[in-house]
Amino acid sequence: MTDAPPPRASDIDGAAAIAPQLYRRLRERIVRTELLPGEFISETEIARAYDVSRQPVREAFIKLAEAGLVQIRPQRGTMITRISTEAVMDARFVREAIEADVVKLVAERCDAAIETELKRQIAAQKNVAEDDSDAFVKLDEHFHRTLADMAGKSYAWRVVEEVKAQMDRVRYLSVEKLHVRLLIEQHEAIVAAVTARDVASADAAMRAHLREILKSLPEVARARPDLFGAVR
User: Fold this and answer.
1) I need a labelling partner for 164 at 20 to 30 A (CA). Which of 10, 98, 143, 157 fits?
2) DSSP assignment, residue 40?
3) H/E segment holding residue 70
4) Does domain 9-80 have CATH number 3.40.50.80?
């Protein structure tokens, strides 16, 4: 992981809605564990860091709370939540249900343009340095979003984005050299099935890919128990 630069006003586009931008910036910082579970953040400090008023910060905090990333405690402040294993499993279930159907649609309609773009993305993933996890996570996200767009299911991807925040935290912690290679190999299997227009294999490859977290989650929880909440 690379050291993240401190938040600054230039990170926010004053010509666009402020609250959604703050939500995305803070969500990323939580997912990357720049803001650690148990840590308190304040509206005043965030507003000062990004040079904005407190109202959009308050709106961003509410959305973060809805995503399960913070807990707003009246009179006490806003605390970064610990990773919920239950929430990770729920998000994985939703992702698999949606993305398995998405990739089947892409396989059914695969043409030369789709094949070219997906192979281009695989090549880009292979060109990323194995220790540049930040870059790979962005390419991975783009890969899955592209499949949803190709299937004509952009709304379905927005649903996935809404529920997968806790899953993203684990994914970020688990992306390391050997794991990156494995994930790229899984992406290649998905693309191979799609370009062969093999709907059943595309479905199976996507499900296998999204079930990888079932193996990585226990490993991450053992390595970083301080980031996880108690199992109910």
Assistant:
1) 10
2) E
3) strand 70-73
4) no
CA distance 198 to 192: 9
What length does the chain have? 232
pLDDT tens per residue, the chain (232 residues)?
445 556 765 678 878 899 999 999 999 999 988 999 999 999 999 999 999 999 999 999 999 999 999 999 887 889 999 999 999 999 999 999 999 999 999 999 999 999 999 999 999 999 987 778 788 889 999 999 999 999 999 999 999 998 898 888 998 888 765 588 899 999 999 999 999 999 999 999 999 999 999 988 998 999 899 999 865 4
Cα(216)–Cα(161) distance, integer angstroms: 20
**For residues 135 and 86, is the Cβ–Cβ distance under 8 A?**
no
CA distance 181 to 107: 24
Same fold: 9-80 with 85-227:
no
Query: Residues of 51-85 as b/e, b for ≥16 C-beta within 10 angstroms?
Result: ebeeebbbbbbebbeebbbbeeeeeeebebbbbbb
Indicate the domain borders of the chain: 9-80, 85-227
CA gap 113, 196 in Å, rounded? 14
Rounded to the nearest 10°, the torsion over CA 35, 37, 42, 47 is: 30
